[in-house]
Structure prediction request, 716 residues.
Amino acid sequence: MKLKQFLPLCMFLSALVAPAGTDACNHDYREISNLARMNRGVYGIRSMADGAHYTVIENNNIVRYLYAEKTEGERLLPPTVKNLPITDYTFSPDEKSILIASGATQIYRHSYTTDYRLFAGGKLRKALPEAKDPRDASFSPDGRLIIYSDHNDLYVTEVATGMTRRVTDDGEWNKIINGTTDWVYEEEFGFTKAYAVSPDSRKLAYLRFDESEVPMMEFMRFDNQLYNKAFSYKYPKAGDANSIVELWVYDLTTGKKERIDTGTETDQYIARLGFTPDNRLWYHRLNRRQNLFDMMLCEPNGAQRVIYHEGGEQYVERIEDQTVTFIDNDRFIVRQEEKTGYMHLYLYSAKNGSCLRQITRGEWEVTQVVGHDDKRVWYLSTETSPLRRNLYSIRFDGKDKCRLTQGEGFYSIAPSKGMKYYISTFSNATTPNRVEICDGKGKVVRLLQENKPLQEELARTNRPHKEFFTFTTERGDQLNAWMLKPADFDPSKKYPVLLTQYSGPGSQQVQDRWSVDWEDALVRHGYIVVCTDGRGTGFRGEAFKKQTYGRLGFLETEDQISFAKYMQRQSYVDADRIGIYGWSFGGFMALSCSFKGMGLFRMAIAVAPVTSWRYYDTIYTEIYNDLPQYNAAGYDDNSPVQFANLFDDEKTSLLIIHGTADDNVHLQNTMEVTRALNRYNKQYDMMIYPDQNHSMMPDDRHNIRQKMIDYTLEHL
Prediction:
């Protein structure tokens, strides 16, 4: 469950732009939106196979650059294709052809159908001549085939001839899915392409989802039509039936299909699949409660064995692409926290499933495996501070650790093949993006972007920046926080304060990186904005994060209320003017705090809030709260619906906002909490956004933020 909308690059960038024609009353958020656009970076980076070149999308073309020296860049597409909108692109293995995704029709948060074109031999042609609504297309490792999904079935097209084979034929909407994921896998496991091809291009492994028994969810689509229509899809809520997921292998030479035995348990998750460098199939198997994880390896003779097992008292941290990274035919790296209580790297052998050694160690966390060669691994970690990220390199034996980035702030890294070079993007609270190319040892090769115009604008307007601090709750918990004060802050005056927060398990809002959002507009109007990461948030070790298990929302609400009371005690704060805001999980928290605060907060804004974890999906909810069949109190006792009677509407102004097409946190959540508020004759305000999803896309990202600015100025 994440607020951030994952979209094709061109759609994301366009969403940052304020709609044309907005009037003068929208000046506040327009200014913030302009600042966000000015913070430029380098996007759509692809490293080429030689590790010496990279490509990006520029002016609707794919441009190739050298890492090592500044050049004009080589445009790989001719001017004749300038009217073809590029959503995404993939090179063939020999890099002589390019598979281009053009346009996007969104399905859910990560998924979309598109029109695929193939650029080869200087010509552009339709890549999939028989496809209707293709998605998730990719080349086979030998470059001869393109595999794709269409209407819940898998297909294989020969690049040379365009001839297409149908791999599966039982795909059906809201029933059977082949080769792509169902809604809950897409949302919570974060992938949509549910197939993999062996390195020798002989085997195609794929997942088959049978969602026949998954309950149906519906919401209305209005779309400016005379008669509205219901949109129906399968959405498993906590405790209900999931899809039954099977693993199949299709022989690309003979056409034979074989189902892989994944065990007797059908109520489980297969969170990833793939092949080792020597063509052995592997898959990740996770039980329904998500506290037992097995890495399974399939041998050529049909035998299977566990090469890695992890069990957690509460749960195993969310499975993702970097949970396991293969180095060669035998060695693989695991990123896990169970052994020491902090997320670290371990080297394992596939021969006998043994741990060869711990690679990293300390009371800090590895947040990302960036790359590796045959001797070393490059990774980002919190070693200098939980609020920061730096790049390190270390040998597999745990020796010769090198810190490669020297800035005090937040780095993101785009590596080249073989880690010959990398592109680093750095920022901190006072510095917008600085993008550099470095070699594998950390030496700066050249500067790509330093955002001087933005820096000059920030200096000209004297915009304040985040100040980081810690505070201790009355229970003795020390929490990280930041504060934004007006530029003309006077400690002898009294200021209203807005708490902004998310608070979800493993999340982090208190980071030393540059960003702006709608709350920054309030600072110009004389407000203080603050944020804290309470218990249950991430990057401070397993014990800090997992203490909220089974009582989602209870400790988190305590911490935000404690933070509000802490701010009230500051001499420069108007104790009667404390507000709170949150979106998604943060919306759940804004409601919980405003109800349990019983007048502590002058104002609260809850956007797309969960109001009962019984209404949310299986994978996210059950990993943190167990199944409701076993932990009913953990669901009901902390639901804002259950304590709406505590809301003091005479002291607190409440705004609840939701989109009617939110397929993630359904409008049902807002309807049920407002039903409860109505029952107790409580007054509140609402904004409903027709046909907008969880991120208020596709139309109203700007409108909602200006609304929240205006509401805060009026009621806080």
In short: Confidence is low (pLDDT under 50) at residues 3-25. DSSP finds twelve helices and 43 strands in the chain. Residues 7 and 110 are 6 Å apart (CA to CA). The first strand starts at residue 46 and ends at 47.
